[in-house]
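FORM 12-B: Structure-to-Sequence Request
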């Protein structure tokens, strides 16, 4: 991150929860809450604001209408440059696994101390994963049973298959109705998740692991 404060949006359908989060985060010099949303439509509008784009969305799992996990998947597809940190009252590993598959970078419980929530935000902003202490050990065990490919989101798998076909970022963008910048961000995320350094290595991996 740059020296500027990281821009955060709060996504929760309970105003009191948002008020509490804002009060916690307003005291942190390197974080700045730039908007609040009570539903998916409002959150997507905040994400699409190019004049003041958020760096991270702190997002509730259980919301009326579209769930936070479904919304996280939409964010990952449309705005992959925006990190997503799930906030939930549910200490449930299956929810956490669904959130990770949707593209979330972390999952923290609502009753966590403020210091842990801030630690989670900082970790996810840095491109790392973060889970609340009670969930971390179980998630490490679950992830150890997965292949790197199984950790990819559906959109990332589509991009990987397109790379295996030899398509450029521009062609992939046209094929899937995305911007070239969005495709490039997905490619960066693929390299990070697969622990691959260069573009040639990524394409080689895509060809070798192409879905049949």
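FORM 12-B RESPONSE
SEQUENCE OUT:
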């Amino acid at each position: 991150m740059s020296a500027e404060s990281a821009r955060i949006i709060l996504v929760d359908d309970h105003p009191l929860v948002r008020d509490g989060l804002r009060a916690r985060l307003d005291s942190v010099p390197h974080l700045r809450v730039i908007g609040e949303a009570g539903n998916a439509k409002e959150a997507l509008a905040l994400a699409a604001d190019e004049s003041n784009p958020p760096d991270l969305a702190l997002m509730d799992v259980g919301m009326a209408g579209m769930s936070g996990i479904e919304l996280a998947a939409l964010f990952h597809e449309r705005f992959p440059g925006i990190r997503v940190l799930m906030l939930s009252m549910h200490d449930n590993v299956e929810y956490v696994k669904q959130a990770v598959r949707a593209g979330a970078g972390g999952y923290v419980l609502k009753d966590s101390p403020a210091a842990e929530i801030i630690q989670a935000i900082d970790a996810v902003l840095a491109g790392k994963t973060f889970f609340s202490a009670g969930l971390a050990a179980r998630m490490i065990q679950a992830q150890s049973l997965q292949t790197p490919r199984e950790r990819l989101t559906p959109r990332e798998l589509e991009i990987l298959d397109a790379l295996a076909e030899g398509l450029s970022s521009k062609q992939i963008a046209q094929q899937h109705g995305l911007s070239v910048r969005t495709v490039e961000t997905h490619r960066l995320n693929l390299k990070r998740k697969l622990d691959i350094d260069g573009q040639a290595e990524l394409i080689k991996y895509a060809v070798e692991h192409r879905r049949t």
